[in-house]
Amino acid sequence: MTNSIEEVKDAACILAIGTNTTAAHPVIAYSMKQASRNGAKLIVANPKVIGLVRSADIFLQNQPGSDVALLMGMARVIVELGLHDETFIEEQCENFEAFQASLEAFNPEFVAEVTGIQWETIAEAAQVYATNKPASIFYAMGITQHTHGTDNVMAVSNLALLTGSVGKPSTGVNPLRGQNNVQGACDLGALPNVYTGYQQVTDPKVQAKFEEAWGVKLSGENGLTHVEIIDAIDEGQIKVLYIVGENPILSEANANHVDKAFRKLDFMVVQDIFMSGTAEYADVVLPAASFAEKDGTFTNTERRVQRVRKAIAPVGDSRPDWWIVNEIGKRVAEKGFDFDGPKEIMEEIAALTPIYGGITYERLEDVAGLQWPCPNKDHPGTPYLHKGKFSRGKGKLIPLVYKPSDEMPDEEYPLLLTTDRSLYHYHTVITRMAEGLDELEKEELLRINPVDAEGLGLEGGDMVKVRSRRGEVEVRADVTDVVPPGVVSMSFHFHESPTNVLTNAALDPVAKIPETKVCAVRVEEFQKRAQ
């Protein structure tokens, strides 16, 4: 997030797009609703009628995969009505003329057809966003998990830049991360193209710095993303896999392809806190400790580094992740794994990572975390980014074109499936271990509009087969108007109905993220409900 959670309540306008915030980030959703009660205008854009819609001033129920058309349509309205911030654009942005020219393609008829929303409603949303400041945008996987996910993010950025809604309190472009320490994992190098603090692998100076610190020769080439790793296994290029805290057999797009790849491996290690479906494939399972059994830090979605303190000793043979990796490191490397605890690891992080340079255990003892960038020990942390100046110098407005999703409905597969979150379940295995949560939502549901259900002869509670070009699952039908005609929705938490057997692993060419949010399916009756 460019800004902080605490700032949400003071926004005058909030645009929440591609995020089921009430289910996936309920604390932030509460702040949004608090802002709404304080008079903020709330705009929700989502293919589904999510909980946040009840508090919304404007609901934009756009077709899955149409976000670029929607956002660029809004931008066109803002420019045509002269509601853009000319001073901000002139002083802090570049490429406005080219961007303005690109808006010609997003005429009212085209945008309305692609999004499924009346142009008048889109125009109203654009005016509300542009005229109520400070304005903040929030998005999640509904924006990123597309073959044009990078374009979606650029469209979000364009809207914020166009209105000068960056670099100020209660504004910004705020991606909501999917798990509690996704931000921290990315910050500390769990990406294929960067070392810690987003220092590029391909930068020779960065490479030399880490080679000197670690005493080893490092590659100057980017690694593979998770989807590319699965493909490389299938093609025989990777023989050994080590998975930490991930369950791709249930969470990865085109999960049948993952199953096929895992069976080709020579050796597989899984390190996790539960015996997941993925762990069933492993030659060795290393039991990891949960958050309550270890010391360390988590970095949350607002870039806040927070101390985690051990409440109980690790149960059974489980051990903290750092300890497991450290012990393996001692056995395979001559140096670099002589840490006695997470505090020493944090000291190395600070020494090699400029944005974490001033973050120490001592400083974190008596505060509720520090937000990076925090370059030195006298720095208070950064509540919001880009104050006065962008890190790249000037913000760049990006011309975009609309690109349809990789897989659209046709006669054989006439419905669009989009994946969603649940308030009661957290990804693929953790919450299924809690009897109370499993009782609240014990099985997967296919949410289908009454119009589509009637055409198929379905009733709520019927068991159905959902088929895509990649596989099929059996699931219970929930007939509801939370999804529009032509669209069906499932979450991905239940191994009994593994939704990602259906989804499409086609990649965004830049970010290499799979198009989990859109694929074509058909629905067939499997078994009528008991009367």
Short description:
With about 525 residues, this protein is α/β, with parallel strands linked by helices. The protein has helices at about 20-25, 25-35, 65-80, 85-90, 95-100, 110-115, 120-130, 140-145, 150-160, 180-185, 205-215, 225-235, 250, 255-260, 320-330, 340-350, 360-365, 435-440, 450-455, and strands at about 15, 40-45, 60, 95, 135-140, 175, 240-245, 265-270, 285, 295-300, 305-310, 370, 395, 415-420, 445-450, 465, 470-480, 485-490, 520-525.
Task: Please describe what this structure looks like.
There is one protein chain. The chain is an alpha/beta fold and 531 residues long. The protein has three domains: 5-176, Dimethylsulfoxide Reductase, domain 2, CATH 3.40.228.10; 182-371, 3-Layer(aba) Sandwich (Rossmann fold), CATH 3.40.50.740; 415-527, Barwin-like endoglucanases (Beta Barrel), CATH 2.40.40. The protein is 30% helix and 16% strand. The chain has 19 helices and 19 strands. A hairpin with a 4-residue loop joins strand 16 (463-467) and strand 17 (472-479). Helix 3 (67-80) packs parallel to helix 9. The mean pLDDT is 94.
